[in-house]
Amino acid sequence: MSNPVFFTPPGTLDGLAPGAVFVLDGPEARHAVTVKRLGVGERLDIADGAGKRLSGTVAAVAPNELTVECSGLSAEPRPEVRLVLVQALAKGDRDELAAETATELGIDAVIPWQAERSIVRWKAERAAKAHAKWQSVVTAAAKQARRAWIPEVRSAVDGAGLQAAVAAADLAVILHEDAVRPLRQALEAWQAARPAGDGADGGCEVLLIVGPEGGISPREVTRLCDAGAVTALLGHHVLRSSTAGPAATVLASDILGRW
């Protein structure tokens, strides 16, 4: 069984070596002590959310502090192809559920999208709070999945903002029930045409675009395709907004060699 994971800010694991002692404090330490009830001698991992992971053993426990003896350090590189979920805002927390599940399945970043048919609206006074909630949900999911990387929740976009993101992406796929080409074919064709070594620095991104409950409007599809997106069919059945993104993440991770 893998070790439980707790997060520390990026940079705090820099310069450590096996045998060093690291002190975890704050909310993560309280969670480890009061919720997980970790004791001296138990194993755990501490990740900085940016790829670095410390494996170690609890050496001492205090109410708000955990002292860990480092037994090993590792650095997990970014995937050659990064997957970004563009998730339309949806009612009933289905958008958050999509981000949470996709994080557990390996998504690298999430973009909240204010689609034309989105019922939920991130108005100015609630936008920052809603964004922080999404980031908290994604962080908790990364912890549950014991990941070394915490996906970034990027700034919310409207139609124009998404068009710009599509234009900047290496591939942008609109998951649409009226599409003719299956998602598998779209990804395989792009993978076959991609130059060898393209994205080796982790800068190659594929956007997976999911609409709201009422679907993506024809006008949005046209504008996104004009910006460079392609449409693809995920399956024979119409999936919920909370299901499509995670399902596409699984398929893309397999086809693109991430799994």
- Give the C-alpha Rg: 20 Å
Using DSSP, what is the number of strands?
11
Global structural class: alpha/beta
Mean pLDDT: 93
Largest sheet: number of strands, sense, barrel closure = 6 strands, parallel
Helix content, binned percent: 25-40%
Low-confidence stretches: none
Name the descriptors.
alpha/beta, 34% helix, 6-stranded parallel beta sheet, 7 helices, 259 residues
Short description:
With 259 residues, the chain is an alpha/beta fold. 34% of the residues lie in helices and 25% in strands. The strands form two sheets. It has a six-stranded parallel beta sheet, with helices on both faces. A five-stranded mixed beta sheet has the order 1-3-4-5-2.
Spell out the blueprint of helices and strands.
Layout: E1 5-7, E2 21-25, H1 26-35, E3 43-47, E4 52-62, E5 65-75, E6 81-88, H2 94-105, E7 109-113, H3 124-144, E8 152-153, H4 159-168, E9 171-175, H5 183-193, E10 204-210, H6 218-226, E11 230-232, H7 241-255
Parallel strand pairs: 1-3, 6-7, 6-10, 7-8, 9-10, 9-11
Antiparallel strand pairs: 2-5, 3-4, 4-5
Task: Explain the overall architecture.
With 259 residues, this protein is α/β, with parallel strands linked by helices. The protein contains 7 helices and 11 strands. A 6-stranded parallel β-sheet has the order 8-7-6-10-9-11, with helices on both faces. It has a 5-stranded mixed β-sheet with strand order 1-3-4-5-2. α5 (183-193) links the parallel β9 (171-175) and β10 (204-210). The longest helix has 21 residues, at 124-144.
